[in-house]
Structures are given as C-alpha cells and as structure tokens.
Amino acid sequence: MTDIKRPAVQPDDPRFSSGPCAKHPGWSIQNLLNADLGYSHRAAAGKARLREAIDRTHTLLKLPDDYRVGIMPASDTGAFEAAMWTMLGARGVDVLAWESFGKGWVTDILKQLQLSDVRTYEADYGELPNLDTVDFARDVVFTWNGTTSGVRVPNGDWIAEDRKGLTLCDATSAAFAQDIDWSKIDVATFSWQKVLGGEAQHGMLVLSPRAVERLESYTPTWPLPKIFRLTKDGKLIDGIFKGATINTPSMLCVEDYLDALTWAEGIGGLASLIERADANAKVIADWVEQAGWIQHLATNPDTRSNTSVCLKVVDPDILRRTPEEQAAFSKSLATRLANEGVAFDIGAYRNAPAGLRIWCGSTVERANLEALLPWLDWAFATEKAALTHSS
Q1: In this structure, are residues 68 and 206 in contact, taking their beta carbons and an 8 Å threshold?
Q2: Which domain holds residue 291?
Q3: Is 21 inside a domain boundary?
Q4: Does residue 246 sit in the same domain as residue 311?
Q5: Helix 366-390 crosses helix 323-339 at what angle (to 10 degrees)?
Q6: What would the DSSP string read from start to end of 79-90?
Q7: Which of 100, 174, 291, 331 is deepest in the core (most CB within 10 A)?
Q8: 242 and 125 share a domain?
Q9: Which regions of the chain does DSSP assign to beta strands (E)?
Q10: What is the sign of the dihedral through the CA atoms of 349, 298, 175 and 129?
C-alpha cells in the first residue's frame, strides 16, 4: 500500500468530530439573527422560544404524550447528574458500563452518591455486558449508545415492561439517530451538540410518568445543589418543562438548536435522521470490509453504533509493535489527516483503545465520508512507510 497516491479530492467539510459534531447541511450564522438576545429569558419572547424548543423536541422524537421534556444546564452531563442525584437511592441500582461515559456514572454512583446497594455490569471496549443479568426490580442506569466505544444496545427488548425500578438512560449520541423504544425508558438525557450539531451548554431531560412519581414520592438523604432540584414541596417544578429553566440559558444556543430542529423537520423528521446516519455508517462499514488494515472496535455488527463509529488498526506489522507504539501510530494518522485539512478530531477518545473515531450522524453528508476514505488509506500507507523506514 505504500504506493498509494495522495488523493486529489478532499471532503467539502472535514469536521467528523464526535462532539460537538458537524453543523447540519445549509447551516449559516444568518439563521440565528432572530435570537432573543439582551433581555431576560423569563420574558415572554424568550420563554416562548424555550417552550418551542421543548415542544418541537417532544414531537420530533415521537415521545409518548405523557412524557415531559425539560432544558437543563451543563449539557448531557448536567441533565444526567440531576437525574441520578434526585432519583437514585430509593431502590438498589444496576449500572451498566462498556465505555468511558458509562464508567463515569459508575464512579459517581459509588464514590459521590456512595450508594451501598449497587451492582455493576461492565464490559471491555467493543463489547456489551450480559443484558440478561439485569434485574428490573432495581433501578437500571445505562447508556443507549457508547460514544467512545461505538457500541450500542441492539434495541429495548431486554428491558422489562413490568419493571418495578426506573430505567435511567444516557442517550446523548443516540437521540435523533437511533430507534429508541421510549416505553422502556423512564429517564433519558441528551445534549444539543450531539447528533443535531447544536451549540454546547444545554442538556435535555426526558421524564416518564413513573419518573415524575419517583421525584414526588422520594426525597434523597443528601443535599441537592440548586441546579439539580426538580421538585419543590414534594411536587415537580412544572415550569422547568414549560420553558422556565433552572439556570440562565444562552438564547443564541437556543436559536441554533431551533434551527437544527427546523432542518431535521424539513428533511422528513426522525425517520430521515436515522436513515441518514445508517447510510453514513454503511459507507464506513463497506470500506472496512475491503481495507484490510482496520476493523470496527465493536465486534458484533448488531450492536455497532451508527453515529460514533470507532475503529482499530489491525495491520499485522503494526500489531507487532508495543502498545505505546500502536497508540502513537493511530495518533499520527489522525494528526496527518488534520494537518491536511481532511478530517478534524477523529482520534480515539483519550480513555478508549487506540484508533480512530468517525462521526456518522445525520448532519454529516455521505459524500464527505466517501471522499474521506481514500485519505484514510493514504494516511495509513504513508505513516506505515515512515515507521518502517525509521525502524
């Protein structure tokens, strides 16, 4: 492969980062000129825009009518922390982790909340834990899609319909891109900058009626920071789910999110978003099948992500190197592609196995992924030749 020529055609957009991900096709700063800036978000106009973001999210995701959606501070992390701090502790907890963000929730549950009745089910990057071992008499915490491993749950069939506990799902790289069975989810969170390419800062919190009942019937034994408080005097703070946010939101970010929703609605809604992500992931999968030097980190095709596609170098000559040398080689691939202006930020997540991570969500154009593939082969051949020469 060392004689591969430098490709002549570059992707029109080299942004393949897994978060924040690429803006939607046709995005322009001009789309944000109507943002309600310079006065209170609690004024009628600002509150109406926040309520619009909530209502359109509810519709686009096809949530059940009795599910609530609220806007939370501090992105997906803030939304999920609020859910854990306000609802966990009423029952034992089963927590699943197969990549860095899930492992982070394990740490928070054990070391910050210091819950005693906790069972953890972990798997290596590229694998899923045994879902059949989960006990739904307990609360269950999991990610729908492992952003840093490229592994997702196959569906919601493994979740009990007659569960006694709550299911708390970090869905930040799955919402708007994967078919989530909302009847199996009691709490879900996601951020604007994942999947739809919105700007950072804000997270979304989805609650089922069962989650609302937990909030109104259970009081944690620990103090709650103000930005986590979802109830007052034993009742849900309903305003959070009507546009009265806990903390001051960026109305510029709100406008950008509304613009992303408009684009999503305009291309056909949720079904089209999922279809675009699936088609993008297939571009990478088809290339991996014939490339020879690279494979998916996710070993089972049925559980591979269609958004955060994680890859590992499997060329025998590279695998003979030390783990440190293999990591350096993968990093050099990503660096070379970035320096060429071809692909930005596609190195593996810092805590994940060495490799590449390419965002394939719906805001990425398939033609850009197709243009990227020859560059991946070229970068690999070039870096391997340089490594061989230096040895």
Answers
A1: yes
A2: 270-390
A3: no
A4: no
A5: 130
A6: HHHHHHHHHTTS
A7: 174
A8: yes
A9: 68-73, 93-97, 118-122, 139-143, 145-146, 151-152, 167-170, 187-191, 202-207, 231-232, 235-236, 294-296, 308-313, 356-359
A10: negative
DSSP for residue 370: H
DSSP classification of residue 75: H
Give the whole-angstrom CA distance, residue 314 versus residue 292: 8
What tens digit of pLDDT does each residue of 263-288 get? 999 999 999 999 999 999 999 999 99
Six-digit token string for 386:
């340089």
State whether 250 and 319 are in the same domain: no
Chain segment 4-44, per-residue pLDDT in tens: 899 999 999 999 999 899 999 999 999 999 999 998 998 99
Instruction: Give the SS3 label for residue 167.
Output: strand
β-strand partners of 282: none
Amino acid (1-letter code) at residue 357:
R
Q: Can you give 29-49 as a three-state secondary structure string?
A: HHHHCCCCCCCCCCCHHHHHH
94: left (phi over 0), alpha (psi -120 to 50) or beta: beta
Residue with tokens 């992707």: 11
* Residue given tokens 């060495």 in the structure block: 354
